[in-house]
Specification:
The complex is a heterodimer of chains A (about 280) and B (about 250).
Chain A: H1 7-40, H2 46-50, E1 53-54, E2 59-60, H3 63-94, H4 99-113, H5 116-130, H6 137-161, H7 165-173, H8 178-207, H9 210-216, H10 233-242, H11 247-279
Antiparallel strand pairs in A: 1-2
Chain B: E1 4-15, E2 18-29, E3 33-37, H1 44-51, E4 61-69, E5 72-73, H2 81-87, E6 88-91, H3 102-112, H4 118-131, H5 135-138, H6 151-163, E7 169-173, H7 181-194, E8 199-203, H8 207-213, E9 216-221, E10 224-230, H9 231-236, H10 241-247
Parallel strand pairs in B: 3-8, 3-9, 6-7, 7-8
Antiparallel strand pairs in B: 1-2, 1-4, 4-5, 9-10
Helix pairs in contact in B: 3-4, 3-6, 4-6
The chains are: A mainly alpha (about 280), B alpha/beta (about 250).
Amino acid sequence: MRVYFNPRAEERFFRGLLWLLTGATVFVLFFIIFYVLKRGLPMISLEFLTRNPVDMGKAGGIFSTIVGTLALTLLAVLIGTPLGVGSAIFLSEYTRESWVTRVIRFGSECLAGIPSIIFGLFGFILFVTRLRLGWSLLSGGLTLAFMILPTIIRTSEEAIRSVPASYREVSFSLGGTRWQTVTKVVLPAALPGIATGVILSIGRSIGETAAVIFTAGSSLHIPTSLFSSARTMSVHFYILAREGISMANAFGTAAVLVISILAINLLAYALMNRFMKRYC
Amino acid sequence: MSETLIRARDFSQYFGPVAALKNLSLEVYRNEILGIIGPAGSGKSTFLRSLNRLNDLIPGSRPEGLLEVRGMDINAPGTSVVELRRRLGLVFATPVPLPRSIFENVAFGARLAGEKHRGRLAELVGDCLKKTALWEEVMDRLQTSALKLSGGQQQRLCLARVLALRPEFIMLDEPTSGLDPISTMKIEETLRRLKEEYTIILVTNNTKQAARVADRTAFFLNGELVEIDATERIFFAPSDRRTNDYISGKFG
């Protein structure tokens, strides 16, 4: 049979096309980072990082919002990870597939699709007013924990399921109980996948604004307890830009935000590589 | 003959409605190597997994009839499955080292049982690696990952890991199916030595292997025991025509 097209030209065309698509993606990413850093980096100084905002953020630094971001994210991850990983272990190791597990999984997927502002509203009604926690780190942390829960459940479950069944058989055949098998064999092997989910969640928590304004408030003071209101960097950026207080300081904040997310990712992958080298 | 340690009486293993083992009756004697041969799907592996109740993990599995180890019905309610599995160590067809160091792989069973004393663990690990002739090859790199060993070394590691349980029985499920002839020879030599201390059940899809190492050999076909006898009799004067056909390579 005759070939009616030129295979080499076809190869070249699609290679070019795919290169273009990938290039466009990378361009957008680098453009955003470049733009934010270009406008924000000149603002960053030791003073900017270590002083509290003055005059609603028109002057001064962003120290209290850095503290607020760290505290809130840490709290969200500390609450969300045990809940999520626990659910994932239950779903994949302690139950057989049935309509119950399907309902739980479906519910968790739906949770993932809910806009963050709805989480904010929910957190406001439940934690802030109903449970009288007020605008506080605790309210915000709990709300964010619920928001990141689906991501953690899903990535953890996938990671746990991809651990070879033969590992479990070995553990059981060597006299391991189910709990020992989960903690000593399955979780260590699934750790890289679980960590990926947690890192994604950290990114989402740091970048979240809507759910945070409603629940943690926007106080510019350094939070002193779980019950203090706090402002995160994202919220600070939003208020500075939206109210037109100071675009320069807004971009300074954004630059710090972008750099810290990059740093967290790099650190997490470095830690994971070290772990993998030791055990695999 | 010598003391009977394992006894199956009319034992069947069901998975849902399907019986993978049907009305099995056989005995295993102290300090012998019992070879089990038969084509794929004949229930050889199922028998080993019934003995340490690994089949429990499969939804819908159900044993019927009697399976005794030292006179105790292993399926009786109240039997400690954890203890049973420690008594009947199992080596799988494909070596499955856990993603840990060589040392931690061998020490794994002892750690599960709660042993924490470093000296005792080190002694146990050294001991078991020596019994499987792996010590010389790995003594200077016990802390490196077990995944870096060759296939043959991995399988001997898995055997050492089972020995570290201090089991009464060693069950091997086609342990050399993925190994080269030299690694196979090393495993077989090890088994002959271990016979002094342990009772061994060796499932193999290689009939010659049974001829080389087994004292007695059982032939399984379609979930049923066709014949069990001294290895020479099975290979030179089998009483069932199907055994003869299988051994001479007419099917399987």
